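re: that chain from earlier
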Amino acid sequence: MNMRSVARRAACLLLLSCAFAHGVDVEPVRPFHGEPEAPTQFVNPDLLIETERLAVLLGDGSTPPGASLVVIDARPNEQYAQEHLPGAFCLDSDGFQDGNDLPYALASRERVADCARRFGISPETRIVIYDTHALRLAARIWFTFWAYGHNNVCLLEGGLDKWLEEGRRISDTPSPPPSQPGTWKPAERLRSICTIDDVKRFIVPRPPGRFPPTSILDARSNAEYSGTDLRADAGGHIPGAVNLPWDSLLAPVTSKRPGARAKGYFVLREPAEIYALLRATGLTPKQPVIVYDQSGGRSSHLLFVLYLMGFTQAVNYNAGWREYGNRKDVEVER
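^ sequence. v structure.
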């Protein structure tokens, strides 16, 4: 990469960091010479389902979702008990992980299989997951099912807040168990996930006067990335990692209904905007890249968006900074 390209990317990253800090809208930019046009649609749209479509699939609520559709509420049980989508099952995202089970810090295969059996999940079942946390909690469950090999898992755009904003029907009673137990068996071998040893191999030395290829994305806040927000023994980031905060890919929607129960919600930015942000990091759709955060939730959300956009060579370092930042045998940048 010549110095003009280096200067161009540095300026672009500086402008984007200012946009993140001040909440400025990111407009799609004209492509550089040789750069393909930014997409106007998501490359893998089946990963995301709109509230309108889910409402049709759920019908009038006289019967719970069957084997072809299972809805999962990723919030804690006490929140689920107050209100949830009709027919949804509760699966607390924060409890559906094992941070001490290294190297992957993921729920065990046996636990995932038990959830599939209890919720009636079969190989052909479409799993829809939602929360009220801009889909951060839901994304962790999405990634868990995806990592164990289920191919039909999606997130609900806008989550429960958007559903409430639109005045759609909810329930406060636990959903009845399925008529038949689920038959899907989690795969023996995980996919789209990596260990700390893989991370070490992705750390690329920086040639003098040049940017190395982007091989690691940090989904945490800038304060965590810089080390001013300390959440482990060490503060900072993995050497060479580029900071792309997970919530920089979201757009707020303000409530427009007087007396609406929801006070607004978040949706994903337009595909062209997301593409501009991803390309500004130096990443290309076919490029292998590791994503990480503190403990797997925000990195799962970033991985979800990457897959939605067609950047399918990404893998999740799910153990994240809770492992890396507490190790004594690794390098740290600040």
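The chain has eleven helices and eleven strands.
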